[in-house]
Amino acid sequence: MTDLKKHFAVIGNPIHHSLSPQIHIAFAKENGLDIDYEAVLSPLDQFKNTMHQLIQQKFTGANVTLPFKKEAYQLATTHSSHAKIAEAVNTLEFKENEIIGHNTDGIGLVRDLEQNLNVDLKSKKILLIGAGGAAEGVIYSMLEKKPSELMLTNRTIEKSRAIKNKMDMHAKGFNVNFNVIEIAKLPHQYFDLIINATSANFNNAELGIDHKVFHESSLAYDMMYGKETSYMKHAKSQGSRVSDGLGMLVEQAAEAFFIWHHIKPHTKSVIESLRAL
Description:
six-stranded mixed sheet; amino-acid biosynthesis; aromatic amino acid biosynthesis; 2 domains; SDH_C; globular; Rossmann fold; 12 helices; NAD(P)-bd_dom_sf; alpha/beta; single chain; oxidoreductase; six-stranded parallel sheet
């Protein structure tokens, strides 16, 4: 590629559903930038080769989605602090002989909660459901905001404990009550914010979450986007305010856009236009 236009991509498998091209093109248009941004399907065993092809084609950067965030972390030669803590990367910069890995997921979640949903996380009691990469990628960013309590739960408590042990070394200075709780004990607790970070394949019955966890003054947030999940329906039936993860998707993309272009894009109009679709 000899043109001056900068080239970007999002890599995943599957990838046809990705809204990232629309989001980044909208950000670029708003800021008078002419960029290319494409969705690239990588075979499951070919992620490294796919990335090296993009580098050879003089791409400036790439976003990485499931299931390649851990591989992207291993591929990067330098890591941001958030990427190091999560041990996962969703944004890559290609600079000369360097591949710089970032993780913007936690920043995206916190911004959506604080700026779009008007939730001040400081001193709040938070429950995070899930112990996979999605949960791991956002815990540090939430602890940074100094909630009074962050509880982690999952169907298999061992996974939650493993994440807690890993995060404890990074989060010591925050003075947050960060702990693991068994699903059976949830109905006897109060939470201001309940976040579902599990995969779409698991519904509430399988998670074993009692509907009494939800109440009128809580926000139930689902990282999935594009449809009302059974988790959101259960929460709504108990009077909770609910939100899907579309705002998080746009906000984490905005942080990636800032990393690449050093411009902070406006996000509200993009969220609204995607919601309208």
